[in-house]
């Protein structure tokens, strides 16, 4: 096997002098830097599978919201969750080995250290988004799996959440915990059935325009629409920006270099311009691999209004909280909400004070939020950028099905909870199933987006991307709300923040892009903009 690994590695080298790091969502950078990374991730995922008694490990090749020229490789654990953190360091170690020989030795040393039999059975499943570079990265990945005799299945082009779903299905198939049929068709069927059940005969009102960022979400969502019964649900959808035949327009509008998709809508706080959203019509945007979701509409009187991840979170928490109450389960189940520092202060206040639910703050990255959410019976987690889901404990799902209802209202609440639990992808944030959940909640409440928007008023905020010489100089602490490095930077940020009323700002290095991000919120729009720009200046100065 040693010779096979050496020979295969020689064909898929890393780029000398490049430092690789397992970031917020795996390794992510310019695609031409990645073939060696993909090969080495193949070695590591095979090891991880063997460590976990041959359970399948998932690998997703995507760079999500990043430009088409980027790509990324990330590892998915057996139940569809993100790779255990301790293993991120092993991945970084393996990927940075300077030579093939060094790689082989590190691979064997890791196996010895973790007491893994490299000849035991291992299994890896993988998929990729629509980026053209994905194909070559899959070849490199498969070469490592072949060289190490690891069984592998190529699920080809998928959304990221579909790969997470399939990973869990492979590992639960034929057991009482079976998550669904292990196929793309199984994914459509499971969530479409749950959508119909969760609606409980209610009809969705008005048309929904879905901007798919010209990414993999377009064709996949269109596939799903084929199995959703339109008449029974009233689900009337117009899909836009679903061109995957011209890969260069990924995350861009088809007509030119203007961005679209969830990342654009959230960061620029404006709707995609082409096609122009129809005034008053309910709209939403996915990102490039369909794991983020942002809603918005253009009001004829007041203009663009956005409902981001914080809004989706509070909507889901309020709906599920009410159902748990109606089902008489408020003393049995702990509901909690997980956010990051990017959450608008008004949303945190609304969830804690109005919904009376606990809020936990974690660093950026769904891997952190997911973990914290699993500490609750019902854990609602969304990043402000629209990435998130609701996780239900096994016990919660069991109670929804087993509890004897004392009234028709209780029966209704229990059945709705069970259906909602099935509808929301439990493995990771999924724009498609999150969107179906939002549509269900709006139908139950009889709400328009305007009604939803009235629940609370966001503090004006601004998110800025700052390019710096070396983003790794910036190290954050306190759930990324403060900088510990470079020395002095946080003091300067504190100093400017103090000049504004009800203001908050923080800076951190992105884990997916070669840049820092600055967030600021303040009492007025102009103050939020001004504060964000001042903090961005500080970051620029300390990062050069
Ligand atoms: C990824 C992560 C998200 C994170 C985002 C931005 O999203 O999965 O949890 O919020 O990157 O991270 P950062 O600010 O560190 O660049 P995606 O949709 O790009 O995979």
TrEMBL record:
Substrate binds at residues 383-385, 508-512, 517. It holds the Pfam family PGM_PMM_IV. Its EC number is 5.4.2.3. One of its GO terms (molecular function) is magnesium ion binding. One of its GO terms (biological process) is carbohydrate metabolic process. It is an enzyme of class 5 (isomerase). PROSITE patterns: PGM_PMM. Binds 1 Mg(2+) ion per subunit. Gene3D superfamilies: Alpha-D-Glucose-1,6-Bisphosphate, subunit A, domain 3, Alpha-D-phosphohexomutase, C-terminal domain. Residues 186-293, 308-447 form the Phosphoacetylglucosamine mutase AMG1 domain. It catalyses: N-acetyl-alpha-D-glucosamine 1-phosphate = N-acetyl-D-glucosamine 6-phosphate. Belongs to the phosphohexose mutase family. Catalyzes the conversion of GlcNAc-6-P into GlcNAc-1-P during the synthesis of uridine diphosphate/UDP-GlcNAc, which is a biosynthetic precursor of chitin and also supplies the amino sugars for N-linked oligosaccharides of glycoproteins. This is Phosphoacetylglucosamine mutase.
């Amino acid at each position: 096997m040693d010779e096979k690994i050496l020979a295969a590695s020689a064909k898929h080298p890393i780029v000398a002098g490049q430092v690789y790091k397992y970031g917020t969502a795996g390794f992510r950078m310019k695609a031409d830097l990645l073939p060696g990374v993909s090969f080495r991730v193949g070695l590591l995922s095979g090891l991880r599978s063997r460590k976990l008694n041959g359970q399948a490990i998932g690998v997703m090749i995507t760079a999500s919201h990043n430009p088409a020229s980027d790509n990324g490789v990330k590892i998915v654990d057996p139940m569809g969750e993100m790779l255990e953190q301790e293993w991120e360091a092993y991945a970084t170690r393996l990927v940075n080995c300077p030579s093939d020989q060094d790689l082989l030795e590190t691979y064997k040393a890791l196996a010895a250290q973790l007491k893994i039999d490299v000849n035991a059975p291992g299994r890896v499943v993988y998929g990729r988004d629509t980026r053209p570079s994905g194909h070559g990265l899959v070849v490199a990945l498969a070469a490592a799996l072949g060289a190490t005799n690891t069984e592998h299945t190529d699920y080809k082009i998928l959304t990221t959440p579909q790969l997470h779903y399939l990973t869990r299905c492979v590992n639960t198939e034929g057991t009482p915990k079976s998550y669904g049929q292990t196929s793309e068709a199984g994914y459509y069927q499971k969530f479409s059935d749950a959508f119909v059940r969760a609606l409980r005969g209610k009809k969705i009102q008005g048309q929904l325009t879905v901007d798919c960022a010209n990414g993999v979400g377009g064709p996949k969502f269109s596939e799903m629409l084929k199995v959703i019964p339109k008449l029974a649900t009233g689900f009337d959808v117009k899909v836009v920006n679903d061109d995957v035949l011209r890969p260069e327009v990924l995350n861009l509008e088809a007509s030119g270099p203007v961005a679209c998709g969830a990342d654009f809508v959230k960061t620029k706080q404006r709707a995609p311009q082409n096609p122009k959203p129809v005034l008053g019509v309910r709209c939403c945007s996915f990102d490039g691999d369909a794991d983020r979701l942002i809603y918005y509409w253009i009001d004829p009187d007041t203009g663009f209004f956005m409902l981001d991840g914080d809004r989706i979170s509070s909507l889901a928490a309020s709906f599920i909280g009410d159902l748990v109450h109606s089902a008489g389960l408020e003393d049995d189940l702990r509901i909690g909400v997980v956010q990051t520092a990017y959450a608008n202060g008004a949303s945190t206040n609304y969830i804690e004070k109005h919904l009376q639910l606990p809020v936990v703050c974690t660093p950026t990255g769904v891997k952190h939020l997911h973990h914290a959410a699993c500490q609750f019976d019902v854990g609602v987690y969304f990043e402000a950028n629209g990435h998130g889901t609701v996780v239900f404990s096994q016990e919660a799902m069991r109670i929804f099905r087993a509890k004897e209802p004392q009234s028709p209202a209780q029966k209704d609440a229990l059945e709705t909870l069970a259906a909602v639990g099935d509808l929301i992808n439990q493995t990771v944030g999924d724009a498609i199933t999150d969107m179906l959940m939002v549509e269900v909640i709006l139908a139950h409440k009889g709400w328009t987006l305007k009604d939803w928007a009235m629940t609370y008023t966001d503090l004006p905020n601004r998110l800025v991307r700052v390019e710096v010489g070396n983003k790794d100089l910036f190290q954050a602490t306190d759930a990324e709300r403060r900088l510990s490095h470079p020395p002095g930077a946080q003091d300067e940020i504190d100093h400017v923040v103090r000049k504004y009323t009800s203001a908050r700002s923080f800076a951190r290095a992105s884990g997916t892009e070669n840049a820092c991000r600055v967030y600021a919120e303040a009492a007025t729009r102009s103050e939020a903009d001004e504060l964000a720009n001042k903090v961005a200046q500080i970051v620029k100065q300390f990062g050069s």
